[in-house]
Amino acid sequence: MREFKIKLKVAWHETDAANVVHFSNYFKYFERAELDFYDYLGFNYAKTLKNSNLWFPRVEAHCRYLSPCEFNDDIEVMMSLAELKEKSIKYNMKVFNVTTQKVSAEGYITVVAVDKKIGRAVPLPADFVQAISKYFSQ
Amino acid sequence: MREFKIKLKVAWHETDAANVVHFSNYFKYFERAELDFYDYLGFNYAKTLKNSNLWFPRVEAHCRYLSPCEFNDDIEVMMSLAELKEKSIKYNMKVFNVTTQKVSAEGYITVVAVDKKIGRAVPLPADFVQAISKYFSQ
Amino acid sequence: MREFKIKLKVAWHETDAANVVHFSNYFKYFERAELDFYDYLGFNYAKTLKNSNLWFPRVEAHCRYLSPCEFNDDIEVMMSLAELKEKSIKYNMKVFNVTTQKVSAEGYITVVAVDKKIGRAVPLPADFVQAISKYFSQ
Amino acid sequence: MREFKIKLKVAWHETDAANVVHFSNYFKYFERAELDFYDYLGFNYAKTLKNSNLWFPRVEAHCRYLSPCEFNDDIEVMMSLAELKEKSIKYNMKVFNVTTQKVSAEGYITVVAVDKKIGRAVPLPADFVQAISKYFSQ
């Protein structure tokens, strides 16, 4: 299946006293992949958040840590579509450490659209779903 | 079952532009509960990391987000023992938002002991396992 | 002069691969002192941000690092008033490492009130200035 | 004078509930510029930290905030040499917001070399000083 991939370099401030990337920072890598993907699709996340009545919280996040990343390691985050439903999208995520040539982590995040006023999940915008669906089906 | 509980207050820098705690920061709350628990048990995590050949990485982390936390909300992190094996411990975590009186998040982390030299999981220190086991069985 | 003081314990995720608190995190300690101070004064920062047309950005921040903090060190952040003007407040900050009994850092932050619509600094709310002034003059 | 410049894009997790980049995160941008610069010079920071008896802490950091950055803004961090002494380097930093075409922040960081064993500042490595000096004098 098609993937969306970004390249990053581990920042010093992302490490902890065990000399490796702190486990919480992998979720920031996942987020970077997700939001860069929306950019790539031409979907203006920032503007949508400001001007519509929707926001797009993550309702679930998971990660298994397989091999550590250290400062300045080159990494790739690969994102694929795990599930696309009326009200939620689940993306699988993989962090590949290019420097060590090992898979560093695997996980997923699940995203929904929430109506700011009623505070509940609503159907994802149709054009958004279509663009995501089209990308991953190619 | 017995729990270990800590109280926190949401920091401003933990929020994001959606006006809620960023999803990655819940894992920092989980960590705070875990490491405060070791303090409570009298287990010197920092010293053990420095002086022994072991470190204690998280090999898995998971969170479901149920209700947001905002700046200055009072929260409680409740930790319970999900599984204690020879080489791994799994803690269930719950974040309760005292301000809104709602469960904000539920998740878990799994911790192992790794030998720094061989880079592989080894049995957890016996006194560590005993202390954890004793706490949660009371 | 009177100070406002908070107690913190260094979190694991605040350290970096040099085994000490990352230099950027001291500014989070400064912020914690500032915002806890407003709480102490009974000034509802979160509510004011939401309901008024003001926000209170930092326009300047400075820190000199004197002695490192490590994971789990007990620290105190001492805040004092350096300058109180019509449109800005400058707080001096000191981080004392209780564990090592050394001053870890000294710095300051300067805060202004900005009108959200015109995007420019305006006079600080009178009751806010009064409460701050009263606290530090005692 | 010659500058060293990096390009970044504001990450979602770098914002706070005021909808702008949290003030502490500018110091992470400064760090990124500094460490990317060492990469550019061919100086292996990570390896030096591991294999030598030196580390390179920041002993001072300063920032003035002029105009906010929001999520996904394109920014440039420009670094120039303010002072190069036997035992310390001071870099001036400027964050330019390409999206708004405004200077977002100006500041500096001062870096020293510390002998890990004696815990005191020592002369910076000669080849390091030379490479930095050469870059900025061109």
Describe this structure in words.
Chain A has 138 residues and is of the alpha+beta class. Helices cover 26% and strands 39% of the residues of chain A. Chain A has three helices and seven strands. In chain A, strands 1, 2, 3, 4, 5, 6 and 7 form a seven-stranded antiparallel sheet that branches. In chain A, a hairpin with a 3-residue loop joins strand 4 (74-84) and strand 5. The mean pLDDT of chain A is 95.
Summarize the structure.
4 copies of one chain form a homotetramer. Chain A has 138 residues and is an alpha+beta fold.
For the structure shown, list the relevant keywords.
138 residues, homotetramer, seven-stranded antiparallel β-sheet, alpha+beta
Cα-atom radius of gyration of chain A: 16 Å
Detail the poorly predicted runs of chain A: none
Write down the overall mean pLDDT of chain A: 95
Q: What structural class do helix, strand and pairing data of chain A support?
A: alpha+beta
Number of helices of chain A: 3
Estimated share of beta-strand residues of chain A: 35-45%
Task: Give the topology.
4 copies of one chain form a homotetramer.
Chain A: E1 4-9, H1 25-41, H2 45-51, E2 54-55, E3 58-65, E4 74-84, E5 88-97, E6 102-115, E7 120-122, H3 126-137
Antiparallel strand pairs in A: 1-4, 2-6, 3-6, 4-5, 5-6, 6-7
